[in-house]
TrEMBL record:
Gene3D superfamilies: 2.30.30.30, Nucleic acid-binding proteins. It is found in: Cytoplasm. Residues 130-185 form the Elongation factor P C-terminal domain. It comes from the Bacteria. Keywords: Cytoplasm, Elongation factor, Protein biosynthesis. This is Elongation factor P.
Length: 188
């Protein structure tokens, strides 16, 4: 049993007969009244995100998890296949268990949280950023750069990312996985 002071991003808890992963949290101490913790919880079984508020000191049922490194192999529809980099065992996960499945490139290493009690995979933690090649984008117009303008681009995984006008097809870009946004161009 843990309490609200143990809440952190990525913590898995048992709540309402399901297992949820904490996506966001905020400790709030109002000037009047008791403190509380506002959280955003993502169900590891359905992928549904809910908002919940815990009062300070509330007991929460945390789930013991182990983190293992897996390599993404391929997907067929909504089923994604991963291989453990230690013992080469393969597992399959549904698309709902992934935070940003459209940014996952074959061969990418990810961390998978596994329930210690029944060895069931709970969720996939993507790296903070991924490097992807731009496969399609419209050419930028010269002289249009004064306003920090962006244009849509399709990357090799099929995801669409807004990029600055100077990015061309074939360029490699770094994409932040949490927001799915452009970070920088990678020079080769």
């Amino acid at each position: 049993m843990a309490s609200t002071s143990d809440i952190r991003k990525g913590l898995c808890i048992r709540y309402n007969h399901d297992i949820y992963k904490i996506v966001e949290f905020l400790h709030v101490k109002p000037g009047k009244g008791p403190a509380f913790v506002r959280t955003k919880l993502k169900s590891v079984t359905t992928g549904k995100v809910i908002d919940n508020t815990f009062s300070a000191g509330h007991k929460i049922d945390d789930v013991r998890v182990e983190t293992h490194t897996f390599q993404y192999l391929y997907n067929d529809g909504d089923t994604f296949h991963f291989m453990n980099t230690q013992d080469y065992n393969q597992i399959t996960l549904q698309k709902t268990a992934l935070d940003a499945p459209d940014l996952l490139k074959e061969g990418e290493n990810v961390k998978i949280l596994i329930n210690s009690e029944d060895n069931a995979p709970l969720s996939v933690e993507m790296p903070a950023s991924v490097i992807l090649e731009v496969t399609h984008t419209e050419p930028g117009v010269k002289g249009n750069t004064a306003t920090n303008a962006t244009k849509p681009a399709t990357v090799e995984t099929g995801a669409r990312v807004n990029v600055p006008l100077f990015i061309n097809e074939g360029d490699k870009i770094k994409v932040e996985t949490e927001k799915g946004s452009y970070m920088e161009r990678i020079k080769e």
